[in-house]
C-alpha cells in the first residue's frame, strides 16, 4: 500500500522579550566566562538568550566521564529519556517526545543536531566525541528547527580547528571491563587551512549477566566514533568549512529480566547496532551589509535493533513459546540551507533564509511468527523559509531586546508497505 500526505504551509511565529539589567559603572570588573548559544539565530550568551536553555560545558562532560548523551541529560531540568535499547536514545522535554521506535515511522518531537547537521531519530550517534558543549533548548524551536523542534532541541557543538596546535587525550577504566579511550588534535597551517581530528572507543560488558548462556557481556557496549573537521580561508571575506563524522556501534541488547535483578535467561540475546556517516559543508561570506551562508549535509545510516521476545530459553516453561523480533533500517537524508544575516554590530539584528531537506527510510522487520518479512518505505520532504529580527531598546538603565520570528514550512510524506 502507498500513502501520500501533503501538509499545507504552516506559519510559526514567536515573540520573546528579554530584559538585561546593566551593571553599575562603579562595580568592580571581573572576568566572567561567556557561553554563547549556537542553537539560536541570535547566538547570544546564555544570560541574554530569551528562552529556557541549559548549556553543558566541556568541564561538566569531563567531570561526569560521559561517553554518551544519556550520561548528562539529567543536568537539564524537565528533560527525561527512555532506553528500551543499549543506550537512552529517546528523549522527552517537558513530557513531549519519543519513548521507542518499532515498525512505525518516527517524526521526532525533540530534535538532535550535531554541528549543524540534523540527525534526529539517530540517538546512537550522540557519543560526545571531542565536544565543546551540549545545548538543551527547552520548548518549541519552530523558527530555527521547524517541526523537529516541537518540544525542544539537543544541539551538540564539537571543537573546531584552532589557530595554535592543541589536542587532548583521555583514558578511563571502570568496572564491568569498561574502557573509554579518546584523542583529539587540531592545528592551522600558514596557508589558512585548519584541521582537527578526533577518535573515541568505548567498550563495556554492561551490568547484565545471562545465567543461561553463562555470559556477562550479552548487554555490552562496543562503540567507535571518529571525526575530521577542516576550515579554509579562501580570502579575507570567505571561509569554507566541512566535516565528516562516522559512528559505528556493535552493542548487545539483553536487558529483560524476570526478577528485575539484572540477570537474564535469554537463549538468543538481541543487538542494537548503528553504522552511520554524516558529511557537512559550510560556506560563509562576509559583506558590507552582513553575512551570507550556504550549508549542505548528507547522512547515511544502517541500524539493527532486535531482542529475544520470549525473554527465556527453550525448555524454561511447559507452555512456552520462542521468538525474536528484529528491525533493520537504512536511512538516507540530505539538507540544503541558504541564509543571510546582518552584521554582528548592527543595531537591528536580522536573519532570513530558506531550507530544503528530504529523507528515505527503508525498514525490514524480521519477526518469528510473521508469515513473511514486513517492509516499508518512508519518504518525508520539507521546504521552509524563515526570518527573525532582534531589536534592542534602551529604557533608563536597562536594555530590552524584542525578538520576533516567523517560519513557513511545507511537508510532503510518502509511505508504502
What number of domains? 1
Number of helices: 2
The CATH topology? Maltoporin, Chain A
* H-E order: EEHEEEEEEHEEEEEEEEEEEEEE
Uncertain parts: 7-29
Mean pLDDT: 88
Percentage beta strand:
over 45%
- Cα(first) to Cα(last) distance is 5 Å
User: Class, according to the CATH hierarchy?
Assistant: Mainly Beta
The portion of residues assigned to helices is under 10%
Class inferred from helices and paired strands:
mainly beta
DSSP strand tally: 22
Spatially, the strands of the biggest sheet line up as 1-22-21-20-19-18-17-15-14-12-11-10
What is the CATH architecture annotation? Beta Barrel
CATH superfamily: TonB-dependent receptor, beta-barrel domain
Largest sheet: 12 strands, antiparallel
C-alpha geometry: globular
Indicate the radius of gyration in whole angstroms: 23 Å
Can you tell me about this structure?
This protein is an all-beta fold. The protein has one domain (2-416): TonB-dependent receptor, beta-barrel domain (Maltoporin, Chain A). The chain is 3% helix and 57% strand. The chain contains 2 helices and 22 strands. The strands form 4 sheets. A 12-stranded antiparallel sheet has the order 1-22-21-20-19-18-17-15-14-12-11-10. The chain has a 5-stranded mixed sheet with strand order 2-8-9-6-7. A 3-stranded antiparallel sheet has the order 3-4-5, with no helix packed on it. Strand 11 and strand 12 (193-204) form a beta hairpin. It is globular.
Amino acid at each position: 500500500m502507498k500513502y501520500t500526505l501533503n501538509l499545507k504551509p504552516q506559519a510559526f511565529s514567536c515573540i520573546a522579550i528579554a530584559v538585561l539589567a546593566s551593571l553599575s559603572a562603579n562595580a568592580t570588573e571581573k572576568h566572567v566566562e561567556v557561553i554563547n548559544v549556537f542553537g539560536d539565530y541570535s547566538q547570544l550568551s546564555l544570560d541574554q538568550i530569551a528562552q529556557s536553555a541549559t548549556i553543558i560545558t566541556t568541564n561538566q562532560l569531563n567531570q561526569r566521564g560521559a561517553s554518551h548523551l544519556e550520561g548528562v541529560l539529567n543536568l537539564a531540568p524537565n528533560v527525561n529519556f527512555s532506553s528500551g535499547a543499549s543506550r537512552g536514545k529517546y528523549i522527552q522535554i517537558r513530557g513531549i517526545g519519543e519513548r521507542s521506535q518499532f515498525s512505525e515511522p518516527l517524526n521526532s518531537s525533540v530534535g538532535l543536531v550535531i554541528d549543524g547537521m540534523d540527525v534526529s531519530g539517530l540517538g546512537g550517534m550522540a557519543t560526545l566525541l571531542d565536544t565543546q558543549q551540549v545545548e538543551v533548548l527547552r520548548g518549541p524551536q519552530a523558527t530555527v528547527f521547524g517541526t523537529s523542534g516541537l518540544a525542544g532541541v539537543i544541539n551538540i557543538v564539537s571543537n573546531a580547528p584552532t589557530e595554535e596546535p592543541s589536542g587532548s587525550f583521555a583514558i578511563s577504566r571502570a568496572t564491568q571491563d569498561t574502557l573509554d579511550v579518546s584523542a583529539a588534535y587540531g592545528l592551522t597551517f600558514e596557508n589558512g587551512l585548519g584541521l582537527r581530528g578526533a577518535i573515541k572507543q568505548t567498550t563495556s560488558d554492561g551490568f547484565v549477566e545471562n545465567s543461561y548462556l553463562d555470559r556477562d557481556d550479552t548487554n555490552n557496549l562496543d562503540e567507535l566514533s571518529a571525526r575530521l573537521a577542516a576550515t579554509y580561508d579562501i580570502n579575507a571575506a570567505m571561509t569554507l568549512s566541512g566535516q565528516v563524522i562516522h559512528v559505528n556501534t556493535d552493542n548487545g541488547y539483553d536487558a529483560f529480566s524476570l526478577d528485575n535483578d539484572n540477570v537474564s535467561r535469554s537463549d538468543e540475546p538481541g543487538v542494537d547496532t548503528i553504522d552511520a556517516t554524516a558529511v557537512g559543508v559550510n560556506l560563509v561570506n562576509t559583506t558590507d551589509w552582513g553575512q551570507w551562508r550556504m550549508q549542505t549535509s548528507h547522512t547515511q545510516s544502517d541500524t539493527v535493533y532486535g531482542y529475544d521476545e520470549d525473554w527465556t530459553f527453550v525448555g524454561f516453561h511447559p507452555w512456552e513459546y520462542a521468538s525474536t523480533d528484529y528491525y533493520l533500517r537504512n536511512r538516507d537524508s540530505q539538507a540544503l540551507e541558504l541564509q543571510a544575516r546582518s552584521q554582528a554590530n548592527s543595531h537591528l539584528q536580522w536573519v532570513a533564509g530558506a531550507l530544503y531537506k528530504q529523507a528515505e527510510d527503508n525498514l525490514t522487520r524480521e519477526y518469528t511468527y510473521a508469515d513473511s518479512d514486513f517492509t516499508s518505505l518512508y519518504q518525508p520532504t520539507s521546504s521552509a523559509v524563515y526570518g527573525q529580527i532582534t531589536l534592542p531598546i534602551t529604557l533608563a538603565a536597562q536594555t530590552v531586546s524584542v525578538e520576533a520570528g516567523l517560519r513557513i514550512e511545507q511537508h510532503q510524506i510518502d509511505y508504502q508497505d
